[in-house]
From TrEMBL:
Key word Lyase present: yes
EC number(s) given by UniProt: 4.1.1.48
Chain ranges of the Indole-3-glycerol phosphate synthase domain: 4-255
Protein name, as recorded: indole-3-glycerol-phosphate synthase
Organism: Lutibacter flavus
One example GO MF annotation: indole-3-glycerol-phosphate synthase activity
Source organism, top-level taxon: Bacteria
GO biological process: L-tryptophan biosynthetic process
Keywords on record: Amino-acid biosynthesis, Aromatic amino acid biosynthesis, Decarboxylase, Lyase, Tryptophan biosynthesis
The keyword Nuclease is annotated on this UniProt entry: no
Reaction equation(s) it catalyzes: 1-(2-carboxyphenylamino)-1-deoxy-D-ribulose 5-phosphate + H(+) = (1S,2R)-1-C-(indol-3-yl)glycerol 3-phosphate + CO2 + H2O
Involved pathway(s): Amino-acid biosynthesis; L-tryptophan biosynthesis; L-tryptophan from chorismate: step 4/5
Length: 261
């Protein structure tokens, strides 16, 4: 079993348990459920947008512990100070050391910059939960969902006013998505082997229509690469480890953004 299969198997068990413990009705009554989500699309397209989606990531299957000291509060304030276009917060506990409280704490600090709830969505329950904890955007990973699921979960998110970042790694996964006005993330990391190759972004960029917003994800650690990817039409750049591996992720993010040409 590859790591992605392991993550998904674990996630399905976790969500089945959660469904027994938490009533959807309770989620719907939470104060965040009433707020109007912020738009990632608008943020990425706004004039002068940095395009940087900066991630809060404590650990990962490929790198182990990345940063177990930085707090969500300090990192959120630092990323906002750096003028990120959005925050991404990993909420998977078992493999990434995250939790939904991180999103709730970040939301309590700021309501100006979109928050992506980064997790492995395998059930509509998690989408309702995303809205209840104050997220604005969810991630749908084409590698672990069918065409039908991508469509249905996308519709559920839209009905709740949430935007979706659809993540693909190759043409086969791209073919599962209806490509009209979507936000498409091309993950440079193969989630089954951890191999990172920026060529994935470059190769798939031309296969995505202009009605979509293109986001390049993973392995981005040089401001010059961001400048280069912009030439291929990318408007968003999801970066985690490069900031989180430092003592002060917010400061690292600010310096990185200052260097983008
Ligand atoms: O990061 C991993 O090791 C990983 C392994 C298996 C599934 C997903 C994984 N990462 C999720 C991500 O997509 C990244 O956290 C995100 O794109 C940022 O990547 P990076 O800048 O390389 O930290």
């Amino acid at each position: 079993m590859n790591i992605l299969d392991k993550i998904i198997a674990h996630k399905k068990q976790e969500v089945a348990q959660l469904r027994k413990e938490v009533q959807i009705e309770k989620l719907v009554k939470s104060p965040n459920f009433q707020r109007t989500p912020l738009s990632l699309k608008k943020s990425l397209l706004s004039i002068g947008s940095t395009g940087i989606i900066a991630e809060f990531k404590r650990q990962s299957p490929s790198k182990g512990i990345i940063n177990d000291k930085a707090t969500i509060e300090d990192v959120t304030n630092g990323y906002l100070d750096a003028k990120v276009a959005a925050q991404s917060i990993l909420t998977d506990a078992h493999f990434f050391g995250g939790n939904i409280l991180d999103v709730m704490k970040a939301r309590a600090i700021q309501d100006t910059t979109p928050i992506l709830r980064k997790d492995f969505i395998v059930d509509g329950f998690q989408i309702v939960e995303a809205k209840a904890i104050g997220a604005d955007v969810i991630l749908l990973i084409a590698a672990c969902l069918t065409k039908e699921e991508l469509k249905n979960y996308g519709k559920l998110a839209a009905d709740l006013g949430l935007e979706v970042l659809y993540e693909v790694h190759n043409q086969e996964e791209l073919d599962k998505i209806e490509l009209d006005n979507k936000i498409i993330g091309i993950n440079n990391r193969n989630l089954k082997t951890f191999e990172v190759d920026l060529e994935h972004s470059i190769e798939l960029a031309s296969k995505i229509p202009d009605s979509c917003i293109k986001v390049s994800e993973s392995g981005l650690n040089d401001p010059r690469v961001i400048t280069g990817l912009k030439e291929y039409g990318f408007q968003g750049f999801l970066i985690g480890e490069n900031f989180m591996k430092t003592e002060n992720p917010g400061q690292a993010c600010k310096e990185f953004i200052d260097q983008i040409g």
